[in-house]
Amino acid sequence: MDEIQLTVAKAYPNDSGRGIARLDPHTLMVLQLTPGDIVEIEGKRRTSAKVWRADRIDWDQDIIRIDGFIRQNASAGIGDPVKIKKAEVKIADKVVLAPPEGTSIQFGGEAEDMVKRQIMKRPITKGDIIPVMSTMAHPFLGRVVTGQTIPLIAIEAEPEGIILITEETDIKLREKPVVVDVTGTGITYEDIGGLSEEIQRLREMIELPLKHPEVFERLGIESPKGVLMYGPPGTGKTLIARAVANESGANFCSIAGPEIMSKYYGESEQRLREIFEQAKKDAPSIIFIDELDSIAPKREEVTGEVERRVVAQLLTMMDGMEERGQVVVIGATNRIDAIDPALRRPGRFDREIEIGVPDLADRLEILQIHSRGMPIYHWENDIAEKKLMERIASFENNSKTRISENTLKIEILISEKSKIENELNDIKDGQDKQDQLKHLKSRIDDLEKNIETHKNNNKKLEKEIHSINKINETLKEKRNILETLLADINEIRQTSERELEDVSITFSEKHIKQKDKKIREIEETLFESGVVSDGYFKKVIEDSAPHMLDHLASVTHGFVGADISALVREAAMKALRRYLPQIKLDEAVPREILNSMQVKASDFEEALKDVEPSAMREVMVEIPKVAWEDVGGLDEAKQEIIEAVEWPLKKPEKFRKMGIRPPKGILLYGPPGTGKTLLAKAAANESSANFISIRGPQLLSKWIGESEKAVREVFKKARQVAPSILFLDELDAIAPIRGMDFGSKASERVVNQLLTELDGIEVLKNVVVIAATNRPEIVDPALIRSGRFDRLVFVGPPARAGRVEIFRIHLKNIPLSDDVNLEELADLTDNYVGSDIESLCREAVMLALREDFNAEKIEMRHFRDSLKKVRPALVEGMIEYYEKLQEQFKGGTKQEQKSYIGYR
After folding, report:
1. Of the candidates 463, 231, 264, the residue with the CA atom closest to the CA atom of residue 357
2. Full-prediction pTM beyond 0.85?
3. Residues in CB range of 301: below 8 A, 6 or more apart
4. pLDDT at residue 499, as a whole number
5. Are 290 and 256 a contacting pair, CB within 8 Å?
6. Among 182, 217, 245, where does a domain finish?
């Protein structure tokens, strides 16, 4: 039988726990396999898996992608060679499953049926570890534990060899744990999303020395002794350490930093020595020290002797006189600068690996991992429409093909009939020819019947096409209605997002019920016409779920692995709360309720309100709900910001193609209240970027170094949640001109730090800095140059057309009398800025309510009265001042550049 040797690689996220092996088409051809066949995998042990085709990226790589459970069953790690051949499979008669030692499981009443349903058509051999998942739909445990994977061991399997689970297989479960010859924590590389590069670097440092120490002996060098992982909390440092220990087959010893500290003299050091000695006895071993900064802080900065002695003991144990043997130390911290520098050198922690905040692709992978066993229900309109059009096109094409085939058959039959008729004419009368005549006439009758049948079929098919065309017309008609309905529903949704009470004011209950009724009528029409069916709905939902996860990944900027796990769990809990009224706590949950449980997009949206990114809790990060339509006037400023912010964040490849670097920063300057902050918020929303808002004075501190540290931290956070927009309001407060007689040296140091962050060694990638000030002449000139604030955008008072637009925006949801004239209001509000107009509209409403609390409309006289109360923020002197500033910032020839802004 054909056999081939391949290298083991990590499985795709969605394949984990499904018993799947991915092979490329060439390997499938060599082994004469088709997708769905069973293969035998031989490492140090034999196991089996079902074959699926690998993605194109893996073709001709000579690899087999299998998950951690299959790797354990084959006793092979990532990078190890295994032999693959087509398996000889028998039908399983009986399989007995039990949990491994160290796990305590209480199975529910229908556990055996639920487990059987999960492992149906799965190949197994005796001794295999088979993962099953307890979900809301399949809670085979005595309690509902959503998304928990439980490893079960096949302690008995009849007959011997590779067997396939079928309907006839007798599945038995035992609660008593069994001892298995498998070490590790059960966490595999497939349980870690988005950290492929970091895992690869860690494996080089840890797995190779533990599995093949002879390589280092041959090269005459010492193997690496330690790896220090650092990064924000929740990024997966502990998880990686456990996965590496599990996959390498090493003994794993975990130390939580504070655990070993003791108030008694010498006891902390004694505990540390005991841990290292035990690890040496159990070698190969991995010692994982979590929260390393708590037991190994910088000795010059601590006051207690205990910490200093522990650091000294740790240094000795890691690189002392005695050999450590096959013991690797992994440290984890989120405060790497707080660790004693003596630990951060080769021979102790040889390599430092940053475990950062995941990007978009990484977040998607983490979401896929955490939502594996979740019954996600999502409906994507675009996919529904695409599937609907495919279905209609398929009906139409099939009917047209069948008509074409029938027409061809009719032509052949008519031709044959014509030939027979010619033969009849050639036959002369005579007794001996009578039989021949009867035979030919019989054939003609048969042909005529066939022709008639095909013609009838054609008529039926033409009717089908006619009905399809009618369905198409119905769909077009319904689609127009649907688009109108969706626009109305979107308006209702946007109104509810602004303020829930606004919905009942803007839309009556009758109005909303009418729209709901129309949607139900359209659904019924589609069902009656046979265009949609249950199968169609199922397919749309299956294909829509990945789109929902894509969307979630795109809106969870700054979320680390732990946050995403919490988000998925919270979404499941939101879904569960919908079903709680139907569940009696003292009774078993009915199967119908379990099968109907679904987690919807709305559950995730609600969960997003409760789960905030842990990496960003120190600073306020939001995606504002301000669109360009909410910004009145300011067309030139809008266009400049779109070019400088939205284009680089949305289409960075265009800038790379043209060989230019997009602007790093934009300085918005102009009178107060003109909409500088609003412009920055709209830019963040339209580019789907995180918006970090910092008011200048809040960065300043009286303590030396704290202000600069605050600036560093803000920029660090902005990089972590990229793509992001960092908005610095009141820039003049933190970046005044250096070298002035007044002011403190702290502000000068802040300016220096800002200059370094904006145009320093570390590149600002996918981060745009927008600053706002109404005193640009006192901002340090070093900031206002290309490479820092590349663009200076003047945000001035709105022109007449701009004021009309601003009035229209602010009066959009206010009931107005017919006598209200926006053009006249714009004429009356010369020198009014955006915030003045907003205040004017609010004051007009207050005047109307003061006059009559039950007033239903605002009249023009209310606006005229409010004009007496709300005065413009701009006066003549201020307008001239900003006009001069604008001229000075425009540039021009040397003779035209008369200003010396910033230099005194």
Report:
1. 231
2. no
3. 338
4. 44
5. yes
6. 182
With the CA atoms of 247, 252, 257 and 262 taken in that order, what torsion angle do they form, in degrees rounded to the nearest 10?
A: 180
pLDDT band for 472, please (50, 70, 90 cuts): low
Q: Residue 687: which pLDDT band, with cuts at 50, 70 and 90?
A: confident
According to the model, what pLDDT value does residue 898 have? 42
C-beta of residue 271 within 8 angstroms of C-beta of residue 255: no
Q: Parallel, antiparallel, or unpaired: how do β-strands 724-729 and 81-86 relate?
A: unpaired
Phi-psi region at 558: left, alpha or beta (left = phi > 0; alpha = psi -120 to 50): left
Tell me, yes or no, whether 786 and 814 share the same domain: no
- Residue-wise over 612-646: b if at least 16 C-beta within 10 A, else e? ebbbbeebebebbebebebbbbbeebbebbbebbb
- Which residue do the tokens 């600069």 mark? 708
Residue 735 and residue 754 in contact, taking contact as beta carbons nearer than 8 Å: yes
Considering the domain architecture, whether residues 832 and 715 belong to the same structural domain is answered as no
719 CB neighbour count, 10 Å cutoff: 18
Distance CA 201, CA 195 (A): 10
Find all residues with CB under 8 Å of 275, minimum gap 6, and list them: 253, 255, 260, 287
Across 132-146, 483-497, 518-532, 671-685, the highest mean pLDDT is recorded for: 671-685
**Strands laid side by side in the 123-124 sheet:** 89-91, 162-164, 123-124
Domain count across the chain: 7
Residue with tokens 């504002």, as numbered in its chain:
624
Do 628 and 741 reside in the same domain of the chain?
A: yes
Q: Is residue 844 over pLDDT 80?
A: yes
- Whole-number percent of the chain with pLDDT over 70: 73
Whether residue 902 is contained in a domain is answered as no
Do the domain assignments include residue 140?
yes
* Phi, psi (degrees; rounded to nearest 5) at 10: -65, 140
Q: What does the pLDDT read at residue 185?
A: 46
Where in the sequence is the domain holding 576, given as residue range(s)? 556-616
The reply to whether 117 and 139 lie within a common domain is yes
- Under 8 Å between Cβ of 74 and 43: yes
Indicate whether 333 and 345 sit together in one domain: yes
Q: Looking at the structure, tell me whether residues 216 and 303 fall in a common domain.
A: yes
Nearest CA to 224 out of 353, 384, 56, 89 is that of 353
Q: Are 57 and 107 in the same domain?
A: no
Distance CA 761, CA 894 (A): 32
Of 100, 67, 66, nearest in space to 84 by CA: 66
Task: Please choose, from the candidates 837, 769, 834, 825, the residue with its C-alpha nearest in 3D space to the C-alpha of residue 795.
Answer: 834
In the chain the first and final C-alpha atoms are separated, in Å, by 89
* DSSP assigned state of 643: I
The least confident of 165-179, 498-512, 587-601 is: 498-512
> 750 near 703, Cβ under 8 Å?
no
Domain assignment of residue 72, yes or no: yes
Strand order in the sheet with 767-773: 621-622, 690-695, 724-729, 767-773, 665-669, 789-794
What is the dihedral sign for C-alpha 687, 692, 697, 700? negative
Does residue 358 contact residue 561 with C-beta atoms inside 8 Å?
Answer: yes
- Is the pLDDT assigned to residue 401 strictly greater than 70? no
- Pair type for strands 724-729 and 690-695: parallel
Q: Are 82 and 8 spatial neighbours (Cβ–Cβ below 8 Å)?
A: yes
| Euclidean distance between CA atoms 551 and 530, whole angstroms | 32
Count the residues in the chain.
904
- The answer to whether the CB of 885 falls within 8 A of the CB of 732 is no
Residue 903 lies in a domain: no
Structure tokens at 265: 């003299």
pLDDT for the residue numbered 557: 76
